């Protein structure tokens, strides 16, 4: 347009030869428009350079075209650990063609948590994705009670979510420990994830499953998925079990921390102590030796979370509101080789 005036909805309707309501339905993604009318409206929008007034649209539709990803962890961990990067990449890909904008919310303290809860329940977003919740966090329930569609990444402790995406954490941990047992390891310790998170509980249960089936027991120390807790956990395991010959760490960062302690102590990996982690992050391929780890499809988890949330925002019926994705073991040099023979 050459007049410098912003084209209106009426101008688009006139150019397309349809009513104003038809243009509005096309803009709002309604399926109740014929393909011919939709094509005419889209062509008119393109020709006129029409941009919908989002503020006015929000007043009418009560939609903000924004969804929030709420992470209950520190910024250091969110931006430093591969797990979060993989999930966020998947979510971004899942939202790419939806017209929805993604808002990242990081809250670790109680004050931050309360402040952002008020924001998220105040009609500022169309839906919320939640990952890394601890304990019986009431946020999912509060969001649902306020009419905010919510999808969780990971099953929460003690809460039955409306919709959730998770990996088979128990089965994956069992595979890792069975792998170590199959290599002749008998004194297998574990560094667990937080026990106020279901993922930490499930991975510890998988460790127990494998040892119990083999008639074995092993020392258990608790971590928080961080590299630092892997270091502390490894030091504690060595103090408690001098004859330790393998360790299953419930995350790759903890496995990296454990391997650092073993190297500092001059303990060869895997000849004396084999190590397995969980995540199969990019880091696992570049440790020395490369880390055996359980692969969980992080990007697929993120895409599924986005898909479920978009469906809920649109009011669609969910055939499978809870999705559990398969895991599998990727064996590398940190475990391969018989106990006390071969390897590094």
From TrEMBL:
Record flagged with keyword Ion transport: no
Cited SMART domains: HTH_LACI (SM00354)
GO molecular function, a single term: DNA binding
Keywords for the protein's UniProt record, in alphabetical order: DNA-binding, Transcription, Transcription regulation
The keyword DNA-binding is annotated on this UniProt entry: yes
Signal peptide as annotated in the record: none
Gene3D superfamilies, alphabetized: 3.40.50.2300, lambda repressor-like DNA-binding domains
One Pfam family in the UniProt entry: Peripla_BP_3
Residue intervals of the HTH lacI-type domain: 7-61
Protein's name according to its UniProt entry: LacI family DNA-binding transcriptional regulator
Organism: Actinoallomurus spadix
